[in-house]
Amino acid sequence: MMCVEGGDLKIRVATIKDSGACVAILRSLPDWFGIPSSIDQYAVAITRLPTLVATAGSSVVGFLTLKFHNESSAEIYVLAVRGERHRKGIGSQLLQRAEHVVHDRGCRFLQVKTLGPSHPSLHYARTRQFYLARGFAPLEELRDIWPGNPCLVMIKYLGDRVW
User: Fold this and answer.
1) Inter-helix orientation angle 19-27/36-48, to 10°
2) Euclidean distance between CA atoms 27 and 23, whole angstroms
3) Hey, what domains does the chain have and what are their CATH numbers?
4) Least packed by Cβ within 10 Å: which of 31, 57, 63, 123?
């Protein structure tokens, strides 16, 4: 079991038992996850894709799901932290562990898709700032991925494989 400690926080690989808590976190954040069909898609992904959870005591307080595209790249498919735990380093710790997982599998690039800057959402402006502060760079804003919403693709170079 993968585990990183930071105070009372532990990061570990999710089990099927964690999926309900992860979905509850999504439902508690309607400013970021307000589309029910998207939450349904994330719920399925949490059980099928590599997912890390952050726990405090026995409670899941955040999670990150990865999607591997090929031998060179992976994607942060979804990352969410309970609202009352925002700005406490949980997302950063989840991201750091995910970067190690991705790099250990030989991938050089990690991407994330988020709402683009041409949309006026202040919540997603904070999300973009989070990723920028952690070394991600905006690659391209696309308008044909999510109907009615601009999608910003951000990317981070993790380094070459260590042979």
Assistant:
1) 160
2) 6
3) 4-157 (3.40.630.30)
4) 57
- CB-based contact 74:102 (threshold 8 Å): yes
Q: What is the DSSP letter of 135?
A: T
Spatial contact of 64 and 93, defined as CB atoms under 8 Å apart: no
Prediction pTM value: 0.89
**C-alpha 97 chain-centroid distance:** 11
Two structure tokens written together for 108: 């050089």
User: How far is 82 from 99, CA to CA, in rounded Å?
Assistant: 21
CA dist 82 and 27 (Å) reads: 10
Beta strand 51-56 with 73-81: parallel, antiparallel or unpaired?
unpaired
Burial class from Cβ neighbours inside 10 Å (0-12, 13-18, 19+) for residue 76 reads buried
φ and ψ at residue 30, rounded to 5 degrees = -65, -20
